Amino acid sequence: MTTDQIAGSKAPPHTSKADILLDGLFAGMIGALVVAAWFLVLDLAAGHPLWTPSLLGNVLLHGTSVQQASVQPLEVAAYTAFHFVVFIVTGMVLSYLMTLFERFPIMFFVLLVMFLCLQAGFFVLDTILGARLMNQLKPWTVVVANLLAAGAMALFLWKRHPSVLRNVEHLWDENP
């Protein structure tokens, strides 16, 4: 007899590796698309579409963030590919952590710490780069982009793992 049977609770079903990978792929793509759409809207409002991915692609490819007179297609394509790969990997890690969270509610804190680390990651990377980007890319736009992406990814993963919300509600309950 298992502990779950003794306690009278029902354990969440095991998730296959393929499900974890697909959920991660979709969650990552959702996050990447949300961020890309956010910066596209901001760039369009400022009158220079695709300026942000061109700027970040320039930093990625050339290690510099010189003010560009025009959007460079190679830089946009390179950064977009990099952006999607990073988000897909992040989505896969989050998907795996969500499957663990279904079984171990304490994983909530791991997810929270991961979110905070990802938020701080951009600012640490920018400091390493010598604060070149913050002179051209406003910090609030990055924070909003990260919050929108995290929210969209969390919503998708919570829809895929409905028992997770119940685990959060009972996180502070004492075990018998």
Plain-language structure description:
With about 180 residues, the protein is mostly helical. It has one domain. About 75% of the residues lie in helices and about 0% in strands. The chain has seven helices and no strands. Helix 2 runs antiparallel to helix 6.
What is the topological layout?
Elements: H1 3-7, H2 17-46, H3 51-62, H4 73-103, H5 107-128, H6 139-160, H7 163-169
Helical proportion, percent range: over 70%
By DSSP, the count of extended strands is 0
Instruction: Report the principal-axis shape.
Output: elongated
Which class do the helix and strand fractions yield?
mainly alpha
Q: Looking at the chains present, what oligomeric state does this protein adopt?
A: single chain
Question: Beta-strand level of the residues, as a percent range?
Answer: under 5%
Mean pLDDT: 80
Order of helices and strands: HHHHHHH
Rg, Cα atoms, Å: 20 Å
- Terminal CA distance reads 17 Å
List the domain count as a whole number.
1
Reported for the largest beta sheet, the result is: none
User: Tally the helices: what do you get?
Assistant: 7
Low-confidence stretches: 1-12
Q: What labels would you give this structure?
A:
elongated, 176 residues, 7 helices, single chain, 73% helix, mainly alpha
